[in-house]
Automatic annotation (TrEMBL):
Species this protein is from: Mesomycoplasma hyopneumoniae (strain 7448) (Mycoplasma hyopneumoniae)
Protein name: GTPase Era
Quaternary organization: Monomer.
Subcellular location: Cytoplasm; Cell membrane
NCBIfam families registered for this protein in UniProt: era, PRK00089.1, small_GTP
One term of GO molecular function: small ribosomal subunit rRNA binding
A Pfam family: KH_2
Signal peptide: none
Any single Gene Ontology cellular-component annotation: plasma membrane
Domain G: 9-120
Annotated GTP binding sites: 13-20, 60-64, 121-124
Membrane recorded as keyword: yes
Length: 293
């Protein structure tokens, strides 16, 4: 009888280095929301990879921020908490970005872990061989021994990474069913998809000062899911922007979110969004906790 094996893997890096894209690629499911804007991921999300007797549990952490406000502090605390009890840390850095002060600061924190791999992301090996060699040298100087290229467009690199991760797995019963791809609830996915569409439809400042609460999530009818959500903004001046002329922006956020949720849930979604003000919530510890960060 084959022995079951498990591995807990934390995915860490600065904002917008490809953490969410990586995790979605590895488990082949959109567990973590992806956008081109930083601070997309605010929650540590467990994604689950299953193959034969191997189960890998990925934790997608928020991008590390130098202290900006209480929300940044909360996100950074989530990263530090995640590293406890982890079997392997994947530290991500884009092939085309310099290793700056923030990268070095975080890399030194990660370097203390026994098991760690640097992933040089967004790498096209045909075009980025020189840049990869430069980054490889940079991270060897920061006491990392294993440095691998990665691109979500390369199945070979994906398989190679999974084989490397398997080396750190240990004999253990699996924590989740082989059919699971995440431990997050449908309610959580609804919140994240709405927040994703805010990120995609609005300028930089407003998405980072907005939060979403699911007020009602009703899937009692097998034909559809009924969702009511409140989008909170940090300033009164943001209200007309997020609502838009005649409700056009809020309507588009709702339509785009509904379509994506219908793909995930496999049924019709009835989504109702409203907007409210939570003044400077990102500096209010009680509000940060209320919003789940």
């Amino acid at each position: 009888m084959d022995i079951k094996k498990t591995c807990f893997v934390a995915i860490v890096g600065l904002p917008n280095v490809g953490k969410s894209s990586l995790i979605n690629s590895l488990v082949e499911f959109p567990v973590s929301i992806v956008s081109l804007k930083s601070q997309t991921t605010r929650d540590a999300i467990n994604a689950i990879y299953n193959k034969d007797n191997l189960q890998i549990l990925f934790v997608d952490t928020p991008g590390f921020h130098m202290r900006i406000n209480n929300l940044s502090n909360s996100l950074n605390y989530a990263i530090n908490s995640t590293l406890e009890g982890i079997d392997l840390v994947l530290f991500l850095h884009p092939v085309d970005k310099p290793v700056d002060q923030n990268t070095r600061f975080l890399a030194k924190k990660i370097a203390k872990n026994m098991n760690k791999i640097v992933l040089i992301t967004k790498t096209d090996l045909e075009n980025d061989k020189l840049n990869f060699k430069i980054q490889e040298k940079n991270f060897r100087e920061l006491n990392f021994e294993k440095i691998l290229p990665f691109s979500t467009n390369s199945e070979d690199l994906r398989i190679n990474l999974l084989l490397e991760i398997e080396k750190f797995a240990y004999p253990s019963d699996h924590f989740y069913s082989n059919l699971d791809v995440t431990d997050q609830s449908s309610r959580f996915f609804a919140k994240e998809i709405i927040r994703k569409q805010i990120l995609l439809n609005l300028e930089d400042e407003i998405p980072h000062q907005s939060a979403v609460l699911i007020d009602n999530f009703d899937e009692s009818d097998n034909r559809f899911v009924k969702i009511e959500a409140t989008i909170y903004v940090g300033k009164k001046s943001h209200l007309p922007i997020i609502i838009g002329k005649g409700g056009s922006v809020l309507g588009k956020i709702g339509t785009d979110a509904r379509r994506e949720l219908e793909e995930i849930f496999g049924k019709k979604v009835v989504l109702k969004n409203r907007v409210s003000i939570a003044k400077k919530w990102f500096n209010n510890p009680k509000m940060i906790k209320r919003f789940g960060y």
